[in-house]
Amino acid sequence: MASAELQGKYQKLAQEYSKLRAQNQVLKKGVVDEQANSAALKEQLKMKDQSLRKLQQEMDSLTFRNLQLAKRVELLQDELALSEPRGKKNKKSGESSSQLSQEQKTVFDEDLQKKIEENERLHIQFFEADEQHKHVEAELRSRLATLETEAAQHQAVVDGLTRKYMETIEKLQNDKAKLEVKSQTLEKEAKECRLRTEECQLQLKNLHEDLSGRLEESLSIINEKVPFNDTKYSQYNALNVPLHNRRHQLKMRDIAGQALAFVQDLVTALLNFHTYTEQRIQIFPVDSAIDTISPLNQKFSQYLHENASYVRPLEEGMLHLFESITEDTVTVLETTVKLKTFSEHLTSYICFLRKILPYQLKSLEEECESSLCTSALRARNLELSQDMKKMTAVFEKLQTYIALLALPSTEPDGLLRTNYSSVLTNVGAALHGFHDIMKDISKHYSQKATIEHELPTATQKLITTNDCILSSVVALTNGAGKIASFFSNNLDYFIASLSYGPKAASGFISPLSAECMLQYKKKAAAYMKSLRKPLLESVPYEEALANRRILLSSTESREGLAQQVQQSLEKISKLEQEKEHWMLEAQLAKIKLEKENQRIADKLKNTSSGQLVGLAQENAAVSNAAGQDEATAKAVSEPIQSTSLIPDVESREDLIKNHYMARIVELTSQLQLADSKSVHFYAECRALSKRLALAEKSKEALTEEMKLASQNISRLQDELTTTKRSYEDQLSMMSDHLCSMNETLSKQREEIDTLKMSSKGNSKKNKSR
């Protein structure tokens, strides 16, 4: 398991490595492209700098020229200002000079106009060059910012990859160290296992020779003693009686009973549904008591009146199928002949549904065409017509699958055994579909009933009939749901029970062979009953085992019981002798008591009558007590109390005698207890000796079990050697894989270092920009 986990880890690492390598190549290409773009941008920046410097030089020269021209204009303006007053003073003499100055002024004005135009043109060029320079500079700065962000992202990716690589390298190094330790321990174990394998190979050779000899003997016995193998051919094997599985038969009978109950509920619901539908046709849309109904509804009600002749046989067929499944039969599809009759009854009911379906649809259309029908009621009627079509289709589907299941009991070639499970699953699906359709019918019919109840022309008879139909539809829905859930819950058992059949075969071949097998089974059961003789009542096995344990470990062994019987007989004889002695003593005491009473009576003749009466009563009580003592024979344990008022020597002797007799009785009881205890201890000693013998026997059995356990341990050690060899091979493969991984990791480290250097250089260049 550890090697498999390590291989999985290395495979994951290899996949991650390949992904990272591909990402690294993509990053390399991106870095190279960025370097090329940065170089091109550098060249463009140099060209722009040069053009900017030229423009600045031209600008400086133009500004200098402009200043010169401005100064010259100022000088000319000053000269003009000086020349104007002179001209006023010397108009006459200055006409000639004015003409000259006018010519010069025109020359100067033209020259000034040219300089001004040239200055404007230079200003425009300078402004355009400045704007272009600012635009280019902004573009380059934005480009530089994006390149710096991309370089930072690439650097972060590179840093993350380096961290991952370092973590993977550390993990691999730790795994490598652990694997080296494991490999050393496994090498030691492998050396020990090699020594054991050599010993086991010798044992294996001996066992192989022994088993080969036994195999030859068994083959010779089989060839000589077994004349015919009937399980070899499926035709003969199908006639063999399979093992009687009483639990399977009881389960199948229970399932059939549940199915019978569900079918009975479904049959009653169908009868109610068809009957109440017939009553509704007689009431709505035209009441037959007031007016004649349409011939279509008359025909429809006539057909519905015959529903019991088609629905009742379904219950009868299911009852016959339930009665055919008994404890003595073998229940498979090949032996359930009564399923065919149930399928035939179901086909007759489906013919009835097909016959009444067009009339039902036409009846719903007639309801829609009546003046009482609203748009909502018309929509419900259309939905019910679709539901009735679906219901008939589902019953047809269910009948086809049940007919297929009935084929193995009549036509063996009609259905292949491999298709049994698919047919059963389709039956379950059809039952679920029937349940869904009945739910739709219940919903749509309840909506229709509520709409009809709200009509002003709705009679009480129509309302009660609708309620009855709705209750029958609800019962149908519940019955369909119960049957569908029941079949789906037992579907696995049905599929598993298909394999129940003859031994070492796929199943019964034909219904004829199944029937023959059932006849053979009955004959075999009758033969076994004839062989069975009434046995005498005996002790149950468990009770006999318990009694045996009691005899082995109890205190009542045969010899001990004999001794106890003998001792008890001796004690009984002694006690009888003592009883006779004390009976005589009691009689003597009674005589003495009578004499004493007579004497007391003579002495007290002269006393008062009251005293005489009291004494007489006392004497009578004492005589009664003496009679009771004689009757119960307890004179030994109960001392005789004298009622004489005058104590004498005899009474004292009696008291002393009674005291000693009580003491003797106490001592005898103690002696009996001591004897019983001694016998009990003796019996316990005998039981302990027997338990010791049993413990020795159990010890021998445990030693044999120890031998078997040692053999199992040796076998497990052999298996361990084989597993260790496989682990060694896997470890060698893993070590090779680790070496290759280390090489690739070293190469990857070099590539990462180069990428780091290149990224650092690019970042420095970008920063310098």
From TrEMBL:
Q: Where in the cell is it found?
A: Early endosome
Please give the coiled-coil regions recorded for this protein.
3-72, 137-196, 558-592, 685-726
Q: Which UniProt keywords apply?
A: Coiled coil, Endosome, RNA-binding
Bilayer-spanning residue ranges: none
GO CC, sorted alphabetically, is: early endosome; membrane
Does the keyword Transferase belong to this entry? no
Report residue spans for region: Disordered: 84-104, 743-769
Q: According to the UniProt entry, which residue ranges have a biased composition of type Low complexity?
A: 95-104
Question: Which protein is depicted?
Answer: Protein phosphatase 1 regulatory subunit 21
The lineage is: Eukaryota, Metazoa, Chordata, Craniata, Vertebrata
